[in-house]
Design goal:
The complex is a heterodimer of chains A (about 230) and B (about 220). Chain A is α/β, with parallel strands linked by helices. Helices cover about 30% and strands about 25% of the residues of chain A. Chain A has a six-stranded mixed sheet with strand order 5-6-7-3-8-9, sandwiched between helices. The mean pLDDT of chain A is about 95. Chain B contains nine helices and nine strands. Classes of the chains: A alpha/beta (about 230), B alpha/beta (about 220).
């Protein structure tokens, strides 16, 4: 299972996105500043935008899902239970998993931002698509909710997961790092070798690297463990 | 001085709180009442019960600059210049004075080159800087930022931080989900279920939160 990007070019006004590379099974993190083209790349990978030239080719990917940055943009039904059914899922299972038992009759817009995000992420995870794309899954969540989202992402055992995010404190365990800057996608490679090459590394990770530590992954706990090892 | 007495509004319940610090960070889980508190302090909402005094006056009598989490939802005018000018214009300042305030605010936010642009053509980060410049035009006495950094990358967030740092406002009240940012405040309020659970210097508040994920990531690696 993989997605190949070959000489992808997409322009809008003065902005041009370019990228090549292969997304294999595992968790990929695409980081980069706001406005660098992360969401546009997500739409191209989801085949909701068509490239001007070059191609996005899916191999062995039967199902794909993109979770948009604002979970309210996914809402199509007047109650939480109907919303879950619209994903083709049983409300009981999803509400249990999302920690929303007893909220089935609520208006989805009555849920807090964190709750709504938990709901859409639980729906997406239970649909278990071959390709799951998450556009800024952590923004405006508190650290408890971010950790829950990380757990859901880490629990995905198969398929390709691509996270587009500028999150700087709470991150999941990932397999590969990518960076977007001024519309250009760059593959940094597999973790852990990619970590020292990561220009948008969060401050705690950048600090650990400066200290000479070699974290095995990108989480705060990985940075702390690596620091412990060199500090003794 | 910000003084809150017997405040009860929606889930927010603050019997007595007086803060004299300049840079005040409000932190806590989603739904703990941070935005409600900030809305009351900026005069956007009238409290159901109790009083809030900023500089000895009710919030409606104080020049407050306010920046929200989603600039897309609060920007009113189609041209950047008019958006920033709206603050002095709504305060009935004469045109030449307004023009001076717009250019000064745009300069501080580092966006003089955007003044003639259409708001719709801006990136998310640029919109946030426009919203900040509009809030800072005419030197507010109190500046309130409601998770204005939530959708910003590190570079833009740092620029926002610098503008806020240089503001002449007597109080800057901001809520954030970045504990590394909150650690740089003069004073921190930690809210939970509508209550102020901890308040004090960052050292005091975060030492009470050491076992939680609210402890700043940088402090964890520096220790």
């Amino acid at each position: 299972m993989r997605i190949d990007l070959t000489d992808l070019v997409f322009s809008r006004g003065s902005f041009t996105l370019r990228g090549s590379g292969t997304f294999g099974p595992g968790v990929h993190l695409v980081s980069g500043p706001v406005g660098s083209g992360k969401s546009t790349l997500a739409l191209l990978l989801a085949e909701l935008l068509r490239p001007e030239s070059g191609a996005v080719r899916r191999h062995g990917v039967i199902s794909a899902l993109l979770l948009l940055q604002f979970p309210e943009h996914h809402v199509t039904c007047p109650t939480v239970a109907e919303e879950v059914r619209s994903w083709g899922l049983a409300p009981e299972d999803v509400l249990l998993r999302a920690g929303l038992v007893g909220r089935g009759d609520d208006d989805p817009f009555r849920l807090s931002r964190g709750e709504l995000r938990r709901l859409t992420l639980a729906c997406a995870a239970m649909r278990n698509p071959d390709l799951l794309m998450l556009d800024e899954p952590f923004s405006s969540l508190d650290c408890v909710a971010k950790r829950e989202a990380c757990r859901t992402i880490e629990e995905r055992r198969a398929g390709i997961t691509i996270i587009f995010s500028h999150e700087r404190a709470v991150l999941p365990r990932v397999d590969a790092l990518w960076e977007m800057e001024d519309g250009v996608l760059t593959a940094r490679g597999s973790v852990p070798d990619a970590i020292p090459l990561w220009r948008h590394a969060p401050p705690y990770l950048a600090y650990a690297l400066r200290e000479g530590a070699r974290p095995e992954n990108i989480r705060l706990s990985d940075a702390r463990e690596a620091l412990c090892r060199i500090r003794g | 001085m910000i003084r809150i007495t017997d405040l009860r509004h929606r889930l927010v319940d603050i019997p007595d709180l007086a803060v004299d610090a300049c840079h005040i960070a409000v932190i806590g889980p989603n739904g703990s009442g941070k935005t409600t508190l900030l809305s009351i302090c900026s005069g956007i909402e009238e409290p159901g019960a109790g009083t809030v005094r900023l500089l000895g006056r009710p919030p409606s009598a104080v020049k407050v600059g306010w920046v929200g989490e989603f600039p897309d939802r609060t920007l009113l005018f189609s041209r950047v210049y008019d958006e920033i000018a709206s603050t002095p214009r709504f305060r009935h300042h004469p045109c030449p004075e307004t023009d001076g305030m717009v250019r000064e605010a745009a300069g501080k936010a580092g966006i003089p080159h955007l003044l003639d642009r259409k708001v719709a053509s801006l990136s998310g980060g640029e919109k946030a800087l426009v919203a900040l410049a509009a809030a800072c035009a005419g030197d507010p006495e109190v500046l309130v930022l409601d998770e204005a950094d939530s959708h910003l990358d590190a570079v833009t967030a740092e620029r926002v931080r610098r503008v806020v740092q240089e503001s002449t406002a007597a109080h800057v009240l901001w809520c954030t989900q970045s504990m590394d940012t909150a650690a740089g405040a003069d004073y921190v309020l930690f809210m939970e279920n509508g209550l102020v659970r901890h308040h004090g210097t960052p050292e005091e508040v975060f030492s009470a939160l050491e076992e939680t994920c609210f402890y700043p990531a940088m402090w964890r690696v520096l220790r």
